[in-house]
Amino acid sequence: MNITIIGTGFVGAVSGAVYAKKGHQITGLDIDQNKIDSLKKDKVPFYEPNLEKLLKSQQKAGRLTFTNSYKEAIPDADLVIVAVGTPSLKSGAVNLTYIKQACKNLAPFLKNQAIVAIKSTVPPGIFQELYPLIEKHAKNKFYLAALPEFLKEGTAVDDTLYPDRVVIGADEPKVFKLLEELYLPYQAPIVKVNPETAQMIKYASNAYLATRITFINQIADLCEINGANIEDIIKGIGFDKRIGHHYWYPGLGYGGSCFPKDVKELAAYAKQVKRHKNLIVVIDKLNDARIPRLISSWETLVKGWAGKTVATLGLSFKPQTNDTRHAPASIIIPRLLKKGAKVKGYDPQARWSPPEKTAQFQQLATVEQAVKSADIIMILVEWPEIVKFDFTKTKLKKQQYFIDTRNRFQSAKLKKAGYIYQGIGNT
After folding, report:
1. How far apart are the first and last CA of the chain?
2. How confident is the model at residue 67 (pLDDT cuts 50, 70, 90)?
3. Domains (ranges, CATH) in the chain?
4. In the structure, what pLDDT confidence band is assigned to residue 269 with cuts at 50, 70 and 90?
5. CA-CA distance, 112 to 308, in Å (whole number)?
6. What pLDDT shows up at residue 356?
């Protein structure tokens, strides 16, 4: 099948490489010439395990090419997948500028009966705007479908090769048939629904996972008051098959490129349809308030940030990615600097600097360098390089605090070494 993917970011690059591996002819299209030039040289402009090697092999095999020309990429495509960004507006609602522009640009070059599948995350009902927009500029008959993505940064290649499910949103049997053929080799459950349902499945999936994170954080807050241990609670509730032991992450709340954006967009949608008291609206507010509340609590613990050196370990929003969007560090470090702290950061992949340049922040190359003179060690992300590090060997003679926001360390061992330990929902 000839497939063109518009947008060569995280979703587009991964999807294109995997579809090519499955034997399809893929063209990646992007208006960013620098990105196209980089991809042609097998260089991915972001960190994603196994992607660069896959891109290189598929370009070498001749199944994957990149261009910035709609005229070159669209005419032979049986399927055009739109995977451009849909960032949030200040109101929380989705910004549809890029997706509308892509639909307008692709329309004149569509072959007869081509399928345009929207993989970008968009609110339900948006096809009522996109279909007439494409139709106005198209010369041939086309079909519109929803093809939401469910990729996780850090495991995106495997998520695409071995999906939990494939969701297809369409109104025409022909569209279901072609897209089913595309995904049959993946041996995953295929969910066939109308476009609005497909779009809500994507939002509901991320909102539910965000809800689990927010819920366990609320329980952890109560544990810190009553002396219960959140990790033991997770173990105890997990034996109930309706609950399970998986996906409980007490900590700093959810971050990254998807959860904050998708929850805010769903909350904005709920308000738009007059459901202002929707649970999603509450989840969004609780997550936004979490880190500021924790910083205030820790400030009391360490007797003020001013004049203290803080080692912040982990600058990405989670392990195995260099994405710093809505990362805990990007929220915590500016607040620490404003309070008069000196911050030393470390991350094995991510690079980050404060919005305003300051000598009070320094990113270092190793964990050992970052903690060398720290009054406070703050674990923000559970990178293996951080979790496996033996902090008992770097304990200084002075009083040091160890704030473990991921609950990955043995508190007894650290206390024995002389640290004042603080976890999430335990002590």
Report:
1. 56
2. very high
3. 2-193 (3.40.50.720), 260-422 (3.40.50.720)
4. very high
5. 66
6. 87
Whether 258 is catalytic: yes
Measured CA to CA, the distance from residue 72 to residue 78 in angstroms comes to: 14
Q: Can you read off the two tokens belonging to residue 85?
A: 């960004």
CA distances (Å), 122 to each of 59, 253, 263, 371, in order? 30, 24, 12, 43
Task: Residue 168: name the closest of 134, 187, 144, 186 by CA.
Answer: 144
Tell me the pLDDT of the chain averaged across its residues. Answer: 96
Q: How far is CA 71 from the centre of its chain?
A: 32
3-state secondary structure of 169: strand
CA distance 286 to 270: 17
Structure tokens at 333: 């470090």
pLDDT at position 369 is 98
pLDDT in tens, 15-38: 999 999 999 999 999 999 999 999
β-bridge pairing 114-118 and 142-146? parallel
Residue position matching structure tokens 């605090």 = 401
Please, what is the Cα angle at 285 between 279 and 289, to 5 degrees? 145
Which one is catalytic: 258, 268, 280, 332?
A: 258
